[in-house]
User: Fold these one by one.
Assistant:
Number 1:
Amino acid sequence: MNFMDEALMEAQKAFDMGEVPVGAVIVKDNKIIGRGFNKKEILNSVVAHAEIMAIEDASRNLNNWRLNDCIMYVTLEPCPMCAGAILQSRISKIYIGANEFKSGACGSAINLMYDDNLNKFLDVHWEQDDRCFQILKDFFRERRQAKKK
């Protein structure tokens, strides 16, 4: 199973609901234990990012906030809030589909994942999946076109 494909399916759910299309899945022992997509508009919540939704889902499914030995696959580089939650949840590895140069906290804008001051380190892998970039481009292109009408 390609877990980035699963994260993209979550991003498509957000796209279909008019949300910025970001999706995430959390895997343990090669099985998906958490899923999430961006729901900021739907829930009217600033913290309803895909990563947070996936962490909450995985925590409920494991009945534990500690996500030791878990891997996250996310379509867009996490923001500082999500990077902090990922570190706090003890996820061990993250695969990222696309950079977020304006606010990415895994190396593009800042890097919380390798900060000596935090005394926590996360194994970050960059997929650079064109599909992750494309779904965002399509979403914002559609939004711009809708505003012109």
Note: The two ends are 41 Å apart (CA to CA).
Number 2:
Amino acid sequence: MAQASSTQAPGLTPQFCFNERLLRDFLSLSRSTIDDSITQNLNALFTPAREGFDPSSTAARQVDSGAGRTIDPAACQGFQDKVLFPSWQTRSDVLTYCAGVATSPDPEDPDLLLRETESARDRERVVDERLDPYSARFFPREARTESLANLVRNQRTVEEIIRSRTWGLVSERCGGSAGGWEEALNNWREKTQR
């Protein structure tokens, strides 16, 4: 099995962020390549041939040959430094950039004029709730920056969950560190910035 590689960063532009499907697809692809298949990625690091062949190992079906065994620390560190952490960093960079786009003014919002018109119309509306109890309801259109901000917030929550799960498996299989994924990622960042 070929070793996974970290996901390449997309060209970061406001248009990329506002295309929510494209943003979700990038995050999903990156997660599925690295985090969703973490067990397979870690199994690919395990080299059973180093222990020598045990003829009795063929007497019973081996469901998970790497279960309970730690992987070579150098292979684990290489996977973390070259694949896992760069992938996480790329996703963090994309989410940080898109969060910045979401909090910036958006003069190119295609629905801006429509929302302003609806808002003016709403202020002029006279409502008689006795005739139509639902007429007081008004659902203003959400600005695309608000929608993007909600998406980024949700995706950051998803990242927290996925990274925690992935780091748990990495720590278990690689003879893990006492710290959490945040500490490990920050240590890697410091190491790569030197």
Note: The mean pLDDT is 79.
